[in-house]
Amino acid sequence: MKKLILSIFLPTFCLVCNQKSSYVCNKCFYSYLNIPYEQHCHVCGRAVRNRFVHIECSSKTNLDGLIFVSVYNNLVKDIIHHGKYEKNYGVFEDLGTITGQFVEKYYTFKDALITFVPLNSRRKAWRGFNQSEIFAKSIAEVLEFPVVNILSRIRNTKSQAGTSRKDRAENIKGAFELVDNNVDKYNTIILVDDVFTTGATLEECARTIKAKYPHIKVFGLTFAMSRLNDDSFKP
Ligand SMILES: [Zn+2]
Ligand SMILES: [Zn+2]
């Protein structure tokens, strides 16, 4: 209802085709962003069948798997960039709706808790919102799961842009702590972020959760994934 009222006063336009619609209209989503569904192992980027991560890759990750809707192509980059730097949180609400519907279509989660990557406090103060939180809440609305912030940043990290995978992992190490310790009634936690780039941030969040709750499955969920190296996969 809140959204309907807002849309009467503030019509939105598709960021791709400029038609009056949500920030990513159905037509543009299916034409440019929707990729053929296939599970990909986030460790090596190759396709994987009947599981989330290859057996040989599973010892290299804290995540039980990654779900993503689209590849991180230039169009997705522009849409997310617009949301982040034009401070337009509605973009992340709309991407969340698309992502929630995607998860509903292809996956079956029971009793999952949705959480999100906390933002560096300086950046949150500048932007006024945490895009991952807006995105997570919108996904949770579709899936009807609770969304709780269970992680806190205990130190601000340097900007990750342009740094190597190894540097990012070093930079983010020990940056989070678990603030809600009442999560053990859940078997599954869905950890939301806007984009999976090197995976360093999601890995560190998952490591922090599993340090206390090793039995809980932690899946990453992002709108886009930038590490795909399957040659058969052409976005
Ligand atoms: Zn469009
Ligand atoms: Zn793999």
TrEMBL record:
<dbReference type="Pfam" id="PF00156">
    <property type="entry name" value="Pribosyltran"/>
</dbReference>
<dbReference type="InterPro" id="IPR000836">
    <property type="entry name" value="PRTase_dom"/>
</dbReference>
<comment type="similarity">
    <text>Belongs to the ComF/GntX family.</text>
</comment>
<protein>
    <submittedName>
        <fullName>ComF family protein</fullName>
    </submittedName>
</protein>
<dbReference type="InterPro" id="IPR029057">
    <property type="entry name" value="PRTase-like"/>
</dbReference>
<dbReference type="InterPro" id="IPR051910">
    <property type="entry name" value="ComF/GntX_DNA_util-trans"/>
</dbReference>
<feature type="domain" description="Phosphoribosyltransferase">
    <location>
        <begin position="132"/>
        <end position="218"/>
    </location>
</feature>
